[in-house]
Amino acid sequence: MSVGKKAKNVLYTFVVDPLKIIVHNKAGLIGFIGLLIYIFMAIAGPYIVPLDTIPKPEQRYLPPSWEHPLGTDFEGKDIFSQIVNGARDVLFVAFLAGTITVLIATVLGSIAGFKGGLWDNAIMAVDEILLTIPQFPLLSVLAALTRLDNFTLALVIGVLSWPALARAIRSQVLSLKERDFIEAARALGLDAKHIVFTEIMPNLMSYIVVSWILSMTGAVYSQVGLVFLGFVPFTSHNWGVMINLAWTWGAIYYKNSVWYIISPIMAITGFQLSAILFSRALEEIFNPRLRE
Fold first, then answer.
1. What is the pLDDT of residues 40-58, one digit of tens each?
2. Cα–Cα distance between 175 and 105 in angstroms, integer?
């Protein structure tokens, strides 16, 4: 097979065919477009819509207008610019924390399920210990005792969030390794590395990808919750900071402040909804049986 034909096959396998599935899945398409908007907002938004940092007391709590699409806050600053500039930190923490969670859970869950024995007992013992510890209170304590930046916060959330997913992946591997095609691979003398990465992992990809999406949405809740409670330093401007300031400055007591309170909540909800809808298309991409 020529190099050009190989490149064409790779293009169709990893780009064209997935895009066709996304377009065919209406819910997935809506989620995909929504995520693209959020990603664009996080990457290019701050350059297109600079953060409004100049207080204008005479313009506080203005309703939406052409000049201020989402109105103004308690200092008269534009809310829309705060939403746009707050997306980068939230999405960074969500992506990194979700990725760390899935990587740890996949590796440990696969080892526990495939190896069994002492490996399984040791990993599941650590898993059970972590599952008994309430995650958000522990996050709150760690955030209160240490100064967490975005990277460290994502790392802590990811490290504490893997146990439930690892146990689920272990169960999937335990089921898969008893299938006929795995027994056939063992009979052919294939090593454990080949069996795990070539035979087992492709059958887990739809579950892993959907779990990655759900881990990201959970990371957003954890991050925004910690920022709202004031456990994470306000080193930058994000949606959690907006909710915290709205509460601190008593925005709930002003009838015209509803846009300041609801805008970051709707931004978070929109990201969560887009991610979950997109997961439906991802599940179809990685699970051929759903396409039928």
1. 999 999 999 999 888 888 8
2. 17
